[in-house]
Amino acid sequence: MKKALLVLSDGMVFEGESFGADGETKGEVVFNTSMTGYQEIITDPSYKGQIVTMTYTQMGNYGVNEEDNESAGGPKVEGFVARECLDYSSNWRSISSLNGYLEKCGVVAIQGIDTRALTRHIRNFGARMGIISTEDLSPESLYKKIKTHPGIGGVDLVRYVTTDKQYKWTEKVWRWEDSSSAGIQNSEFGKGVPLKKVVVYDFGVKFNILRSLADAGFDITVVPAETPAEAVLEMDPDGIVLSNGPGDPVAVVYGIENTRKLLGRKPVFGICLGHQILGLALGGRT
């Protein structure tokens, strides 16, 4: 295994082993406590600009498949940190190892470090900018590279993950073929009732949010993040969803301004970043 280093902007150094792609990457170091779902996390647009640390001990044990991505275009994380990455997988849906997937997609990752210590450090002192490298193995050199990094505050990361064109979404939540016990979701509920129209502002929307909206019986139109409020009102939707997304909501000025124009005209619902944008549009602060 190739040696790798993770250095934080406050001088904390972690030595481990490389997996995924070789190289060097910078991002805001955060943690996620999920025991499963690493593929969904890696492809979640909300993590653009961030290096994600998984607190659970083993990653990669069920591999990677073609269906579980939460966005188009592959990984959105800047880097990935794990206690241990298994280079073999045991799952009938798997088409690749996690290591092979990250390597193919150019994501630099590190394993073999004390992720508990890293998580406690982040919890106690807040998220820090960090740098992972398999090329420069000097802690002093890496610290110099990252300590002056301005961070992702005030940066509009939504522009990097939003769709570039409007589209319709119809795919629902997946079901096993034998789903006789699925309850109301597999019933005649809502049959024959005209679908309510919803416009989703894509600030970095996850596919499963769109599937869940479709499953609830909505006619869904997804629009780019900078779509003018006037254009959305012309569609005459029954409601508007402001999606999740990455980075600092204050930097998404166009989203805040459009939301202000929509308030009082149509029902507006926000998720994660979208909820923060809604709060800013109403005069709140983050």
Note the topology:
Layout: E1 3-8, E2 13-20, E3 24-32, H1 38-42, E4 50-54, E5 58-59, E6 79-82, E7 84-85, H2 98-105, E8 108-111, H3 115-125, E9 128-133, H4 139-147, E10 167-169, E11 196-202, H5 207-215, E12 218-224, H6 229-234, E13 239-242, H7 253-262, E14 268-270, H8 273-281
Parallel strand pairs: 3-4, 4-6, 5-7, 6-8, 11-12, 11-13, 13-14
Antiparallel strand pairs: 1-2, 1-9, 2-8, 3-9, 10-12
Helix pairs in contact: 7-8
Task: Describe this structure in a few short sentences.
This protein has 286 residues and is of the alpha/beta class.
Write up this protein.
With 286 residues, the protein is of the alpha/beta class. It folds into 2 domains: 3-152, Glucose Oxidase, domain 1; 159-281, Class I glutamine amidotransferase (GATase) domain (Rossmann fold, 3-Layer(aba) Sandwich), CATH 3.40.50.880. The chain has helices at residues 38-42, 98-105, 115-125, 139-147, 207-215, 229-234, 253-262, 273-281, and strands at residues 3-8, 13-20, 24-32, 50-54, 58-59, 79-82, 84-85, 108-111, 128-133, 167-169, 196-202, 218-224, 239-242, 268-270.
Uncertain stretches: 179-189
The CATH architecture assignment of the largest domain turns out to be: 3-Layer(bba) Sandwich
Side-by-side strand order of the widest sheet: 1-2-8-6-4-3-9
Helix tally equals 8
Alpha-carbon distance between the termini?
Answer: 43 Å
What is the CATH third-level topology name of the largest domain?
Answer: Glucose Oxidase, domain 1
Amount of helix: 10-25%
Radius of gyration (Å): 21 Å
Biggest β-sheet strands, sense, barrel: 7 strands, mixed, barrel
What's the oligomerization state?
single chain
Please write the CATH class name of the largest domain.
Alpha Beta
Structural class: alpha/beta
Number of strands: 14
Can you tell me the number of structural domains? 2
Order of helices and strands: EEEHEEEEHEHEHEEHEHEHEH
- Could you report the average pLDDT, rounded to the nearest whole number? 94
User: In the CATH hierarchy, what is the superfamily of the largest domain?
Assistant: Carbamoyl-phosphate synthase small subunit, N-terminal domain
Strand content: 15-25%
Based on CA inertia axes, which overall geometry fits? globular
